[in-house]
Amino acid sequence: MWFFVRDPVRDFPFELSPEPAEGSPPGPWALHRGRKKATGSPVSIFVYDVKPGAEEQTQAAKAAFKRLKTLRHPNILAFIDGLETDKCVHVVTEAVTPLGVHLRTRAEAGGPKELELSWGLHQIVKALSFLVNDCSLIHNNVCMAAVFVDRAGEWKLGGLDYMYSAQGNGGAPPCKGIPELEQYDPPELADSSGRAVRETWSADMWRLGCLIWEVFNGPLPRATALRNPGKIPKSLVPHYCELVGANPKMRPNPARFLQNCRAPGGFMNNRFVETNLFLEEIQIKEPAEKQKFFQELSKSLDSFPEDFCRHKVLPQLLTAFEFGNAGAVVLTPLFKVGKFLSAEEYQQKIIPVVVKMFSSTDRAMRIRLLQQMEQFIQYLDEPTVNTQIFPHVVHGFLDTNPAIREQTVKSMLLLAPKLNEANLNVELMKHFARLQAKDEQGPIRCNTTVCLGKIGSYLSASTRHRVLTSAFSRATKDPFAPSRVAGVLGFAATHNLYSMNDCAHKILPVLCGLTVDPEKSVRDQAFKAIRSFLSKLESVSEDPTQLAEVEKDVHAASSPGMGGAAASWAGWAVTGVSSLTSKLIRAHPTVAPGEPNVSQRPTPEGLPAPAPTPAPPTPVTSGHWEAQEEGKDTAEDSGAADRWDDEDWGSLEQEAESVLAQQDNWSTGGQASRAGQTRNPDHKSPESDWSSWEAEGSWEQGWQEPSPQEPPPEGTQLTSEYNWGGPEPSDKGDPFADLLARREVGTQPRPDSWGDDNWGDDGLETESRQAKAELARKKREERRREMEARRAEKKAAKGPMKLGTRKLD
């Protein structure tokens, strides 16, 4: 019969590296890197090989195995598993690095911060206090070789080989037999008489002093070097001197030493130590204390070590959100710590939490997510955005809180590149149409226009053709001045997306109407845009072969590369307007586009202020500036609008200036000549469906019906009756000259019209129809007067009726 003996080393559930890790501490143990076979998680494996004739070392190794297995403390090396055979002893712990190796690595990266060292020493002293005061044990091996550092930067106390009881029932302290470790023994141990009076912790506190010296100054050459503190911080020097004093009786207890260093102004009294102490007890803290802690945490994270943030702060933040109902306060520190993670770690740890947060109904959390979307948007894939995030974000467009609506609009700048066809071209445009037309907050309407100009390059060609011109035209009629500026800049930033026909027939008429806008900032930007579009049309007119090149983007598919022109102005505009938005929303509610305006619009710069007059029942003539404006602080509005002038137009403006470098500026005379012109502020509020972009919100809706005209003078020849091609004497006057001169005297020009003339037959035929209508009205009036006169005569002829009589005839 065959008996098979299983090899315990081969069946060990951990795999270790063949060679010891670099920088293994002196002593009987060899430190190997390892991993768990089942999960692949990293571990550290301490290996002791049994050697003949080393019975004392073998007993010390087995004692350390037993002590480490039974002692559990956050500051003592964490035991995971172990193996003890006749040939070897394996001790598996959490993945750690020897302190000496860690300090050398940190020195190469610029040196460890004092905050990091203060917390590390705090942990070692706390471990010694636990052993001495709670367990009545003497470590007997405190030195650099007995301290290890985990991946979070936490210092752990190991090296329990030579530990013994402080009560003396375990016999004499074990002998080390290793010179590298015996150099840290205190001087009183060399006194064989035993007459030195000392405390049970005196020897360990001396060794702690040696550890402190080595942490700041490097390896200890000899015991006499302890007299020179070297680079030890001044706040720690008095307490260090107590540790290495010649009188062992004067060396403080570990708990007392910790208390002295935590006193005001002490070495361990800092924000980093306080943060760590709070995190250790966070499970028993009150909710109000947690809220305050997380609110202040983000301010300190920049000064904390990166490993500490990744491996200690981040798990606590995730736990607080998942189980502690911490809410929106964890978002700021969470995203700040996320900067230290790799893309893979970010996907695994933070993205699931972010997706879950978007489904929250907590307004504070929703607005924090929208405000900080820039920090995590690059880690979101398109399916996640379209199926799990966008359906929740669009609810913000309908929120009653203006701040959430504004942040939702701004977030579309980041989400648009990842949205699919339906969400971008249908769902989002539907919400933008409603916001731009019906939102009562002017800054939100302005931001909607800005955002649309930025994401225009991502829209499909058909959507661009249907939406952009109508939306920007609608913005130019907004009572909020920055919205009108945004509409003009939107046209300019997306100039490459319009055909030449659209530029000539749709865009330029809208921009020309803004050249008499009451706000100088609107006029200035309108002139810039007009020059740009005119130079574009002129270049195509000079060389028609350029048409295909100029219109290459008009029918192109959506592409992020086409949004270069929009990027420069949209990024600035959102930032500038958002700073204005909160003030306006809090202090001055704006007037919705469909509501009547009740306050005076600011007088244009350089123009005389119009005298206040009662509102006429008929349409206001174009001889006055438009006097209506939404009820806002005019100084804030005009100041915000003026900031648009600082925007860099880039190559678009340079192209215009090269063609029209000699354009005249607004002069005093020119402004005075226009001091009486007005625009009609009344315009319909479009519906929120797709048709609203073209139907009610289209640019044609801005023009008014013709005002009544005087009948043409007798002898006026209609255009259709004029012989355009026949020979005429050169001395014959212009047939239109007399007509135009008389119309200037007897008619009122239409507001927002091209000029004072009606071109072609339509104008004269309209005047003829109006004359006939006026004649018919006069005839009806005369007929009515005749009927009233006849009734009066008939009543007077019969005389008054007598009381009590009845009319029989």
Description of the molecule:
By secondary structure, the chain is α+β, with helices and mostly antiparallel strands. Among the domains are: 14-97, 2-Layer Sandwich (Phosphorylase Kinase, domain 1), CATH 3.30.200; 98-272, Transferase(Phosphotransferase) domain 1 (Transferase(Phosphotransferase), domain 1); 274-340, no CATH class; 462-557 and 570-584, Leucine-rich Repeat Variant (Alpha Horseshoe), CATH 1.25.10. Strands 1-2-3-5-4 form a 5-stranded antiparallel beta sheet, covered by helices on one side. Strand 2 (30-36) and strand 3 (42-49) form a beta hairpin. It is elongated and about 150 Å long. The model is unreliable at 561-713 and 715-764 (pLDDT under 50). Residues 626-643, 729-745, 766-776, 783-796 have a biased composition (Basic and acidic residues). Residues 660-679 have a biased composition (Polar residues). This is N-terminal kinase-like protein. Its main location: cytoplasm. GO terms for molecular function: ATP binding; protein kinase activity.
